[in-house]
Amino acid sequence: MAKIQMTTPLVEMDGDEMTRILWQDIKDVLLTPYIDLKTEYYDLGLPERDKTGDQITVDAAEATKKYGVAVKCATITPNAQRMEEYKLHQMWKSPNGTIRAILDGTVFRAPIMVKGISPVVKNWKKPITIARHAYGDVYKATEYRVPTTGKAELVFTDEGGTETFRQTIYDFECPGVLQGQYNKDTSIRSFARACFQYAVDTRQDLWFATKDTISKKYDHTFKDVFQEVFDAEYKAKFDELGIEYFYTLIDDAVARVIRSEGGYIWACKNYDGDVMSDMVSTAFGSLAMMTSVLVSPDGKYEYEAAHGTVTRHYYKYLKGEKTSTNPMATIFAWTGALRKRGELDSLPQLVDFADKLERACIATIESGTMTGDLAGLWEGETPAKAVDSHAFLEAIRAELDKNLAQ
Ligand code: NAP
Ligand code: MG
């Protein structure tokens, strides 16, 4: 069979440890035999980031802006122990943080669902995608441990030096705590656009919730900005696609999410998204089945797995042991990116390949062949056959060949 041709390159960002090993194996077994893979390769592995003074990460993000679609392998975010292990010149920042800042993007996380592994919440039938506003609020707050009695005030001085606002926060009669949070209209608007854009792309409803009844300025601004962007830029598209934008209070949203059957995007403020994404991903089963895509407000996409570099498995691999590391989320990062590239470049064959590869992955697990992490969660009728990563990829390839022959 002739290989599928691509027109525009994908931005390929390689990574670290066990996922770097899987990355190459996925390409060799499932991609390059079928696609004349055209990528612009950036090695975001920690040694190369250190060698280039992290310029490689910036270059990869800029390339994503240029071409529009990227696929990224998990990477190490250095800490003190990694400084020692890799003899680093600096404790480089998280590549994901750097890329997100350059693209001004929002991260959407969605579980891959298979029959035989059911969510803890039994009425969840479809994925719930969580979008987290990864900017500001408590993550950039200024805090003060109030040591004694005294008055705390909120003061704003405009750029001309005029004090335009002053209000007492609390007159402390004893020690306490104090926190100053902020966010920016520009960031909230970008977040809103990315959410509406992704809802349109994936033809799913969008839910958004804050505590605007209590937080009448701060949270209410989020609510208002979302509504403005929706009315001005997306309402017509939503109507045309038959999808809905739904705003409610965060408490009400939590209750509805638990009772829902899934199948929508839940946009969350920074802290809500941090907490809720962990809850939702755990309830869906396994971190190894969670996909992630960074979407910029002007429609650039970077696909990746939500999990890390799976360090514990890598050390086993280095000792020569076979590992049963789950490649599903990394494969789906590739299929997500290839499908998007195919849509943008009008290459139906590439879109079809992405669909068939995803179906092959799901069919492999549903027929009982899976990695060790899933075998423990398996409730299917046939007993689970736990295999190592490479054998799992080969099993997927056999399914894929069947799909492609049809
Ligand atoms: P992790 O790599 O996600 O792994 C945590 C544990 O989850 C693993 O030890 C494993 O459990 C299980 N797991 C995760 N992915 C799996 C998979 N595909 N197949 C099977 N099991 C899987 O998180 P971490 O150990 O906290 O972090 C390791 C490194 O990854 C760190 O250097 C961190 O900076 C980096 N990281 C990168 C990203 C990213 O690039 N997006 C995200 C998170 C973390 P068992 O050991 O029980 O098998
Ligand atoms: Mg969290």
Please sum up the structure shown.
The chain is of the alpha/beta class and 406 residues long. It has helices at residues 17-31, 46-51, 55-67, 80-85, 95-103, 185-202, 218-241, 250-259, 270-284, 311-318, 328-344, 348-366, 372-375, 389-405; strands at residues 4-5, 10-14, 35-36, 39-43, 69-72, 106-111, 128-132, 142-146, 150-157, 163-172, 176-180, 205-210, 245-249, 264-268, 290-295, 301-305, 369-370, 385-386.
What does this structure look like?
The chain has 406 residues and is of the alpha/beta class. Helices cover 45% and strands 22% of the residues. It has 14 helices and 18 strands. It has helices spanning 17-31, 46-51, 55-67, 80-85, 95-103, 185-202, 218-241, 250-259, 270-284, 311-318, 328-344, 348-366, 372-375, 389-405; strands at 4-5, 10-14, 35-36, 39-43, 69-72, 106-111, 128-132, 142-146, 150-157, 163-172, 176-180, 205-210, 245-249, 264-268, 290-295, 301-305, 369-370, 385-386. The strands form 5 sheets. The protein has a 10-stranded mixed β-sheet, sandwiched between helices. A two-stranded parallel sheet has the order 1-3. The chain has a two-stranded antiparallel ribbon with strand order 8-11. A hairpin with a 5-residue loop joins strand 15 and strand 16 (301-305). Helix 1 (17-31) runs parallel beside helix 14 and helix 6 (185-202) packs parallel to helix 7. The longest helix is centred in the middle third of the chain and has 24 residues, at 218-241. It is globular, with a radius of gyration of 23 Å. The mean pLDDT is 95. The structure holds NADP nicotinamide-adenine-dinucleotide phosphate and magnesium ion. NADP nicotinamide-adenine-dinucleotide phosphate (NAP) is lined by residues 74-77, 96, 287-288, 304, 307-312, 325-326, 373.
